[in-house]
Amino acid sequence: MPIKQLNRYADMVVVCSGDQRYGGELTFEDNVLVGVLAGELKVVQADRTLCCAVGDTLLLPRKQPATLVKSPKDGVAYQAVVLKLPTALVRTYYVETTPAPVGPGVHGPLLFPKSPLLQSLFASLLPYLELQQQLPERLLAGKVAETIEILRSLDPTSDGVLADFAEPGKVNLVEFMEANYRFNLPLATFSYLTGRSLTTFKRDFNKAFQLSPQRWLTQKRLALAHYQLAEKKRKPVELYLEVGFENLAHFSYAFKKHFGYPPTALVKQGDGRRPAVS
After folding, report:
1. Per-residue pLDDT tens digits for 162-190
2. Residue pair 30/84 in contact by the 8 Å Cβ criterion
3. CA–CA separation, 50 vs 67, rounded Å?
4. Residue 275 carries which DSSP code?
5. Taking Cα atoms as reference points, which of 257, 245, 244 lies closest to residue 46?
6. What's 49-60 look like in SS3?
7. Domain ends where: 143, 162, 181?
8. Pick from 241, 267, 272: nearest CA to 20
9. pTM of the entire structure?
10. Residue 16, helix vs strand vs coil
11. Do 71 and 136 sit in the same domain of this protein?
């Protein structure tokens, strides 16, 4: 089962581990840095998927939905160090530092290969889990500044993620939902990310799709799952998290209810044709 190690005196550091495949959807309030110590981490976004191995580090932007799938590798449990970069402290850093110019669209996750600087950074964070008193604010600010300096030295385009303090504005609802339907997020989060109140989101959604949000989301996720099973020859256990279901049992139940046959029927048949309805 997944385990989280954290300390209330330094809650910006978490060590996550698990000896079975697990994951879920997240939208971070702050930028987050993830260092993979063991196992594998897959990050699924609307337009791409990143696979992280041991030694890789990933900078995940705030306010962007993603599915994180964590898996053991070669008999070794997954383990990662997670560092939250509080937005207020990141903003303070950039008050005195001019961000490097970056091209348009440099706002997605950034993958960093193994680096002595990052290894040293994560090693310095682990003792924080043993603190018996609150980490002083100045030390926290110093650690955030150190982290930013390391990331900028390894990849100047880091500024495109770190120095982006914009809040979500009103966007095209249809385009956003078609790109992000696989993420199993609360409707309140979807409404926020599209720049709407929850009431306005539901009204605009029903007008655009003529379905309730939950019914439309379920249908879209099941259609994607069917395609992955029939055309890509994937197994249910490999994809249920990536298409927005919290557990395999719920996915299998919803799939059979919608299509009339279980997802395993496509795996057994293997040729992508529609199985006979039992």
Report:
1. 999 988 889 999 999 999 999 999 999 99
2. yes
3. 10
4. P
5. 244
6. EEEECCCCEEEE
7. 162
8. 241
9. 0.83
10. strand
11. yes
